């Protein structure tokens, strides 16, 4: 692939993924996109991943890579952002992949349309099982400061970074990924981005996400840790909302807790708290 001007940087954070990293690199190669660079940030793999990356990198100049110990996935993502040359970036985990032609589609969009800075372009996402069969096609509801915090609802933000692309400059306003955040990088990112980013939605499948046993996302979800950690972020960020939004979202949260809690006494208490909040918000709006 002859390297031209870089408009798009694909960043792959990876650690001990020898079974997938070759397929990941091939997925970007198969796109045939000349305006893309593929940045691979390895965390010091010991299973053969580094050797595979090195072989490809000697053949294809669009591949740039580093391998060193890091503080986890968020740290690797930040390293990739810091060296990215493209005005737009996207993250491709080693076990996920883009649909055919997606990268050229993104290049077409950013070269023929003027998107305000910072913007996030969002497509649809295929969720795959162990046999690579599509078990769900996810779309994202319209993102805003209030709605993105509703962790109890589905599709409040994209489920995987293969289905969205965004201006690198966004990080100048919202900061980089939190180093101690190892599981909810996407959720945390969209909470912060919802304050200033412009969102554009496309009725096209862009990404493919393997939701399979043994992967971090699957196991985290199976244990119930994902909901618990999202709830913690909800309580942190709800306080930063304008007062009217705060009242409204707390009311909806209480309704969610009522429906999901089996204790009749607690449900009754939550109901009365929610009712008072609702009446108060109606009176003051």
UniProtKB/TrEMBL annotation:
Q: Does the keyword Transferase apply?
A: yes
**Domain of life, per lineage:** Bacteria
Tell me the ranges covered by the Glycosyltransferase 2-like domain, including all copies.
Answer: 9-173
GO MF terms here are:
hexosyltransferase activity
- Signal peptide positions on this chain: none
The molecule here is called Glycosyltransferase
The record's listing under InterPro entries reads:
Glyco_trans_2-like, Nucleotide-diphossugar_trans
Q: Could you tell me the keywords of this UniProt record? A: Transferase
């Amino acid at each position: 692939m002859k390297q031209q001007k870089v408009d798009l940087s694909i960043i792959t954070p990876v650690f001990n993924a020898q079974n997938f990293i070759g397929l990941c690199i091939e997925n970007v190669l198969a796109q045939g996109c000349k305006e893309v660079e593929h940045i691979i940030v390895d965390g010091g793999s010991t299973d053969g991943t580094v050797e595979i990356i090195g072989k490809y990198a000697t053949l294809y100049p669009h591949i740039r890579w580093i391998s060193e110990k890091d503080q986890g996935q968020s740290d690797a993502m930040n390293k990739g952002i810091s060296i990215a040359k493209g005005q737009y970036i996207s993250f491709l985990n080693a076990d996920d992949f883009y649909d055919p032609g997606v990268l050229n589609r993104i290049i077409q969009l950013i070269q023929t349309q003027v998107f305000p800075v910072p913007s996030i372009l969002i497509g649809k996402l295929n969720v795959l099982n162990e046999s690579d069969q599509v078990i769900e096609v996810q779309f994202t509801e319209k993102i805003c400061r209030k709605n993105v915090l509703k962790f109890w609802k589905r599709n409040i933000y994209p489920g995987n970074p293969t289905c969205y692309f965004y201006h690198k400059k966004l990080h100048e306003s919202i900061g980089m990924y939190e180093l101690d955040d190892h599981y909810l990088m996407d959720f945390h990112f969209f909470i912060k981005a919802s304050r200033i980013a412009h969102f554009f939605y496309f009725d096209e499948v862009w990404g493919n996400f393997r939701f399979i046993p043994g992967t971090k996302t699957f196991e985290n979800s199976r244990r119930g840790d994902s909901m618990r950690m999202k709830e913690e972020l909800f309580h942190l960020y709800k306080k930063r909302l304008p007062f009217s939004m705060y009242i409204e979202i707390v009311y909806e949260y209480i309704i969610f807790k009522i429906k999901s809690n089996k204790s009749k006494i607690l449900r009754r208490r939550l109901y009365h708290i929610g009712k008072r909040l609702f009446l108060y918000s109606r009176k003051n709006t």
